């Protein structure tokens, strides 16, 4: 191997490394959203609470919020449906469309979600480094379906972020309680206290 070949290989490796670093740093510069969603069974209903954190460097806009049932084994059906939709509505719209199974609840901008006590208006701009708790959504579904619930956030860029809904008991030592007198939900750290 002569010096010309060695310099060519060195240039190719450093060029590819530089390109990879630029792509990775570009990915980190935008808004990055993390979703934590929990479910709790109260009064015959599954209540879903979703917390959204923007851990990126730019603000993001939330334009839609869905709570839906993810039926196991239907990934192939969703893929076939999207392929058929590409011919009718185009790739961009088919990619940004989410197929929801019942029971489902979907909110799209412009809308106000929640009760008087806790309300959020979509579209909602989530600042970089901040967090928001979306209002509780109650669904009357059987226990077996409660384990299949998922949430999705629709961002202004067209990106859809999906997340599993975890059982609130699995997040020990965090605990979500309903105050019997005020009807408000509260989050506690540590094991339950006995009075």
* Mean pLDDT over the full residue set: 80
- Spans of at least 5 consecutive residues with low confidence: none
Proportion of β residues? Answer: 35-45%
SS-derived structural category: alpha+beta
- Tell me how many strands there are: 12
SSE run: HEEEHHEEEEEHEEEE
Reported for the largest beta sheet, the result is: 8 strands, mixed
Overall 3D shape: elongated
N-to-C CA distance: 80 Å
Q: What does this entry look like structurally?
A:
It is a single chain. The longest helix is centred in the N-terminal third of the chain and has 27 residues, at 3-29. This protein has four helices and twelve strands, in the order H-E-E-E-H-H-E-E-E-E-E-H-E-E-E-E. The chain has helices at residues 3-29, 75-89, 91-95, 143-146, and strands at 33-42, 45-54, 60-69, 101-108, 111-114, 119-122, 124-126, 131-139, 149-155, 160-167, 174-178, 185-189. The radius of gyration is 22 Å and the shape is elongated. The mean pLDDT is 80. Helices cover 26% and strands 43% of the residues. The chain has 195 residues and is an alpha+beta fold. Strands 1, 2, 3, 4, 7, 8, 9 and 10 form an eight-stranded mixed beta sheet that branches. A two-stranded antiparallel ribbon has the order 5-6. It has a two-stranded antiparallel sheet with strand order 11-12. A hairpin with a 4-residue loop joins strand 5 (111-114) and strand 6 (119-122).
